[in-house]
Amino acid sequence: MIEQTLVLLKHDAVSRGFIGEIISRFEKVGLKIVAMKMQHPEENFAKKHYPTSIEERHGKEIYSRIVNYLTMGPVIAFILEGIDSIVIVRKMVGDTYPDRSLPGTIRGDFAHINKIHANENNMALFNLIHASENREDAEREINLWFSKEEILNYSHSHDSLTK
């Protein structure tokens, strides 16, 4: 099924110069970028992005770190479209905890901070990238980050493979 998913290159991916490297990985598997922008999210926006269920599961301290992490600097937001794009992107991104991510995944290749280190130092877990977890999250996140007018429909070289 052709679907759309949201991807965020967080400020550590931007500041470390991994934008092109990461985006090219998605392009190489045939995913189509249908929207893209850079912005520096503010706290209220970050709280809209991260549902309060995260706070309920992990506590106020972790939720606060996650929100602060998203607001630390510029973020590249983009929508990828393709067959089973949510599952494909999540596999390519790797585990939320970089030290558990396999080599070949984005986090496995470019991040290494583990949960223990982050907690001992009262810091966010710098893991470079966000990818929608499921269809419901993808729809909610896409509608938060992009207006309908910002999402483009155009021909892509892989379109003939998806029909």
Q: What percentage of residues falls in helices of 4 or more residues?
A: 40-55%
Structural class: alpha+beta
CATH architecture: 2-Layer Sandwich
N-to-C CA distance: 10 Å
Order of helices and strands: EHHEHHHEHHHEH
Radius of gyration, in angstroms, nearest whole number: 16 Å
What's the pLDDT, averaged over the residues? 94
Uncertain segments: none
What is the count of structural domains? 1
Number of helices: 9
The level 1 CATH classification is: Alpha Beta
Spell out the CATH superfamily: Nucleoside diphosphate kinase-like domain
Strand elements, count: 4
Rough outline: globular
Description:
- The chain has 163 residues and is of the alpha+beta class.
- It has a single domain, classed as Nucleoside diphosphate kinase-like domain (Alpha-Beta Plaits, 2-Layer Sandwich).
- Helices cover 44% and strands 17% of the residues.
- It is built from nine helices and four strands; from the N terminus they run E-H-H-E-H-H-H-E-H-H-H-E-H.
- A four-stranded antiparallel beta sheet has the order 2-3-1-4, sandwiched between helices.
- The longest helix is centred in the middle third of the chain and has 11 residues, at 60-70.
Keywords for this structure?
single chain; 163 residues; alpha+beta; Alpha-Beta Plaits; 4-stranded antiparallel beta sheet; 9 helices; 4 strands; globular
Short description:
This protein has nine helices and four strands; from the N terminus they run βααβαααβαααβα. The protein has 163 residues and is α+β, with helices and mostly antiparallel strands.
